[in-house]
Give the backbone structure.
Amino acid sequence: MSEEKLTSRSENFSEWYNQLVQRAEMADYAPVRGCMVVRPYGWALWENIQAALDRRFKATGHVNAAFPLFIPMSFLEKEKEHVEGFSPELAVVTIGGGETLEEPLVVRPTSETIIGHMYAKWIKSYRDLPVLINQWANVVRWEMRTRLFLRTLEFYWQEGHTAHATYDEAEEETLRILDLYTDFAVNEAAVPVIPGRKSDAEKFAGAQRSYTIEAMMGDTRALQAGTSHNLGQNFAKAFEIRYLDDQNELQYCWTTSWGLSTRFVGAIIMTHGDDQGLILPPRLAPIQVVIVPIFRNDEEKSLVMPAVETLKGQLEGMRLKVDERTELTPGFKFNDWEMRGVPLRIEIGPKDVQNGVVTAARRDIPGKAGKIAIPAANARTEIESLLTNIQAALLQRATDFRDSNIHPVDTYEELSQVVQNGWAFAYWCGSSECELKVKEDTKATTRCIPCDQQSGAGRCVVCNQPAAEKVYFAKAY
Amino acid sequence: MSEEKLTSRSENFSEWYNQLVQRAEMADYAPVRGCMVVRPYGWALWENIQAALDRRFKATGHVNAAFPLFIPMSFLEKEKEHVEGFSPELAVVTIGGGETLEEPLVVRPTSETIIGHMYAKWIKSYRDLPVLINQWANVVRWEMRTRLFLRTLEFYWQEGHTAHATYDEAEEETLRILDLYTDFAVNEAAVPVIPGRKSDAEKFAGAQRSYTIEAMMGDTRALQAGTSHNLGQNFAKAFEIRYLDDQNELQYCWTTSWGLSTRFVGAIIMTHGDDQGLILPPRLAPIQVVIVPIFRNDEEKSLVMPAVETLKGQLEGMRLKVDERTELTPGFKFNDWEMRGVPLRIEIGPKDVQNGVVTAARRDIPGKAGKIAIPAANARTEIESLLTNIQAALLQRATDFRDSNIHPVDTYEELSQVVQNGWAFAYWCGSSECELKVKEDTKATTRCIPCDQQSGAGRCVVCNQPAAEKVYFAKAY
């Protein structure tokens, strides 16, 4: 870590983000354009995200599997909207083992097609349904403008693919996963997302209905943080995914797909970070507590280190780091761990030991206000409760920030102003023309039609025609 | 699962394997030549393998990260032996986003080069060493003759890449991992591997020394089940991985790499399986215990199901499945779970309930000999102890089989005969000519020079020249 200060968020949010991702050693640029290296600290965060999601997937009856990286080009062409959506972004293998391939292979941008092919082979009868499979995988989309975690050529994600006997069951699954993502985002990452439906223009290529969780970043821009798609029978018909029902009649399945990616790491950084660096939610932080021993000589060291060892013992099972580097000052270490967003720092100096305390410093409350002397004897309980408080405080702060930057608007003029630096919430007639006009005039897009919508009706903020639903407009990542 | 019998191992081992992998729903052929789909049951086994290894990696100070899938072609060319070894097997992306790429990108066959490039960027001083990074990843090698799990175009593995200040530290790391792999294979998978050094002809392209764990499959052929390489300074020099030592002088690093792949799933199948199907070691089995309730009418059901629920409660935390399928007979279910290799089956029928017992059937001991009535009240302790016994019995059986098929040989004639159906253990002078002669005459290759070698000296089994070490010769997968 260099000792230079980060560019501040208010000065240049985008530059702040780019510097922070690298200085905190979350990720680095790879030697291939648009690709990233996820460094150990960033990957440890992703592993915790994976564990929190995987636990939820398994608890709802899903199992993991692995489907091939390579997809025959002809597969993508079987679903019309799908190939139109993805063909500009494909990476294509044309040579294998020194020979030009007869049929080029696409490096998967998503796996509906190849999984659909396998489901057609595996599913015979209604007894085989539902099929509830997820995979943790890398995918490739040839993006032109890339940013670490937010948009990279290769990224890591989970993609769930399910097959059902009825439309209702597929829709239920799609919404179950939307709930699951919301629960994960709010309760694990302290990112207060808004679940809702995508407009037709914004939905997944090949989906009948797409749902999303939308998050507000620290610069008020929106980020699509996870999506869940009801694919109807589009892929079932393209790939002949059929089953014999209990009357022995052949029926097409109804399928869904849903994904959440390493992009979510970017969401955590941009939701909670401040000018000193990352702030990681305790439930996902790779290191929850860092202990910094403070001493100037051997005598002080012999006082401090036994107290450090005692605390370490008390905190067993927590994600803990003791910073024993000898070549660095405590001040440097404080900055370093602040940059990396460790939620709680514990300082133990000779005075602390004499007073029978340890000093805790909350990452989310800078300076003296966040420092608390904790009785050493009772440290574990206190530290656990501090972590719980930090988790709750991060969620509260992000929720307050979001809510203060969402503005209900009634007129097009208000809309145009609000989306410069916030989200507008407005009635919309649902037409693509109105949506496109907003995009062209302001660069803001429809983010989602929230699931939780007070019933009512009004007039479209763009065309003034009757409108049944409200939608969020915002500039997005 | 179809009710047809498997081809028997003695009749056609290779056909037995191919049928079993598919019938047990471990994997399936993908629509791309040589690629596989790992089905949920196979992936669950791989996840348990991953967890057992990852725990060991982390306990020895390693951290995980993720490096890109794509490697510029020019990177591979920087290490001469490496590019020679891998260039015939490359899959190459030549088109991205609709445009022909200026420099083709290789889909990684292994990641020494791109990781070397990043290490050169990250490592500055001796304080940065050692770097101990692992990644769980997919890799692609354009193989011509493929088999599910054993050799596929795309496979899944972990690849560790470490950098050190001295040769000794690198060699120590290489051997630490060899030990770790051995411990994993023996104590988790019950696969009694032999750790040893590879001959020069068999070592990794670009390595200074390669170590391997070699396992004997049920047909006596050898399978290389994991490898650990001391790369010397080959990659450090090719990629300029250097550090300032404590005298402020620039030095090249010493690097290692090591990997274990989904091939190991094949090793487990071919070590333990029998003519009824898989036999999975309890420590890795996705399902450790399957409970099959047995009843013919509602009265019996009302007797049996409460006992099933009680047992389920007792076994909480174990990997457990209750087979409640109503459309299938108990006999069909028994065959089904035997095919899938669940180590222990528990049958609960009305008589069992009346007698206060449950009936356990060991997968590793067919028929009545493997059936034990267990007092229901004490079921958990008994079942845990049975699983421990099964784990130990599998290891013992595989070790006995291996040892009875390894033969020390002194003459070339003996060697030629033994390797038709077993392993030969013989003095070898170390020359590539002798090794090649054996290969050409018998198709057997040197498998490893075991680490644990009684000191002594003899004469090479091929050329009769003095030889310091003994080596295993065998036909291999």
